[in-house]
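Objective 1b: paired records.
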Amino acid sequence: MTVIMLANKLFTAPQWYSLILFSFAIFAASHALPTHSLSPRANPSSTVPPTGALIVRQKKPLPGEHPTIPDAIRALRGTKGPQTIFIYPGSYNLGVYIRYGYPLTIQGYTAAPGTYAQNQVTVSVATGRAETGGDPQSSAIWVQQNDFKMSNINVVNSYGTGTNTQAVAVTAQGERHVYSMCSFSSYQDTLYIKSPSAYFIGCNIEGAVDFIFGGGTAWFEKANIVVKPPRSFATITAHKRAQESSTAKFVFNLSNVIGAPGAKPGSAFLGRPWSAYAAVTFQFCSLSNVVNPAGWAAWNPPQDTRTQSVQFYEFANKGPGSQGLRSFGKSQVQPAKIEQVLGLNYASWAL
């Protein structure tokens, strides 16, 4: 009736029915529940380098282009302001260390930017912690800067053919990191989170032992978590908080946990505490039967459990791995909110 008065028109029955449907749609949209499903800011193109970008082309680089990613990183020296590095298809077998004083975006070539499954750029190394002297030093990519974005890049550390000890694919160190549609693979310590604010969307993460670890804060949106066959048992996360007052935590939202071929049912735990105040949440996730019914594991039982003060939570998960009597994790009363994890201004850098 209000619409008719404002429009100053008469409507037939079909027209009035259409107006009712339209009004209902507007009302529903304006009263919809908030969602944690986010999409990163769209790149100008995932097949054409933006104007002014540094270009990496492995095969037959053109004048002004770079044959390796480290060459492009070195070319940033002396430059100022936000920069983009665009990488053409190829398997790049050199470790990459990234440190730049301004916002930096790295885009891998792909015709399907909305998925990691068709990425055409892979960074691969085979270096372990034992031979490099540290987790970050073993990384295929070590990012040590603020305001960093990386999209459509596969990162692999195949040290010991991918079934040996600590070997990091990516170390994320710095504030306001965004990783979109990337794939990370190793066996132990795949993804090292040192960042106080990291956002992962649509990424694939593979490993067997503590393969998402660190003392930072990260929100994982629509992640695909793949558990490789462990030698004894697998642990997805190993979080570390120095003290109870710290706000550091890992949150997995709308994500999937599955087993790789050969991974046995019940062989994986959602995490174990690297420190006594570790904080990890899985919410709205699909957990396959690779997840052990106990859910969570102690650090090094029975001598060093570190379970007394942990904050291991689950909320509204589904699948066979969400069932069972949890060892010491708890169910949350309500889900974690992204603004409480990454900060009220998260949309200014994560979206």
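Objective 1b, second protein:
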Amino acid sequence: MRRARIGCVILKKNVTFTMGIRFSRWLVGCGVAIAFGVLSPSVTWANPQLNALLEQGNEQLTNRNFAQAVQHYRQALTLEANNARIHGALGYALSQLGNYSEAVTAYRRATELEDDNAEFFNALGFNLAQSGDNRSAINAYQRATQLQPNNLAYSLGLATVQFRAGDYDQALVAYRKVLAKDSNNTMALQNSLTSLLQLGRNQEAAVLFPDLLRQRPNDAELRIKAAVTWFGLNDRDQAIAFLEEARRLSTRDSAMQIRVGKIYETQNLLPQAIAAYEQASFVDPQSREAFALYGSAAMKTEDYINAIIAYRALTELSPTDPAAFYNFAVALQGRRRSREALEALEMARDLYQQRGDRRGVNITESLMAAIEEG
């Protein structure tokens, strides 16, 4: 019988387990690839109170009343403490409530009682990962994949936790198993790509891009990753093409324009960086970061007109920032606009004095003296 299905609840009648007890229902809860059995017997247990508790727990679980289900299953465990299926049902209800640490306790006990149940180990791995214990989660997922090596969901869970733990080599091994069975699995492709980039294996990463780019034609983030990869392959033209495509896909996203600009700047492609920062400041005219980066990149190329535009806006956004006025003055002086530069420097000096920044005052006064002498 199949016991795991995403996003469903399955009830199956008259199932006999090796413990010799016949159950009227086999309830599987999914949504996070977690499955479990819940006892709801069609023949009477020796303890009718246990029957009632399990029926009530099953009903509450079906109705997604997880807190009430937890209460019923916990009471049931006081009467039947060594039944893995009740521990599994309790673990699922707790997990749905976001109580992952207690779900771990429940599923761990379930695995102790049924150490050949892959679903329990999968669920244990999920809840350990949600609790932040990635190493223990890896162990649980590895056991699940040992028990059911052809289960795609278990392999994907293992790979994802290894990826989150920064174990990129092992994550790649697991993701490749997933891709061998599902070559279009987007998560496996994306995380394989990121793992390869983290390991500096750009040539291998480049092989994955065609499928991903085809699957996600409007994904600017993916284009940025592609650009980084092709810069690593020393193919600057292709990298620039990817970055420009990312910019085109996110013309109204100031943060994305800034990200692209920073990448250009690290590659010493300053005209392209200036264009990206300028677009960012246009999209978000209240962004101090955008104007500061715009001005700084312009100054590096002695593009004083753009620098003046950027730093003037920055002084308006940050009227108490002495550095903004100082940089504005430097840009003005680059165009030989000495009177305006001195006015900006006086403002910068006053603001430095208000802050008690003697070094800032000295630097500003030195530049003022140089302009006045020149």
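Confidence is low (pLDDT under 50) at residues 1-44. Residues 77 and 86 are 7 Å apart (CA to CA).
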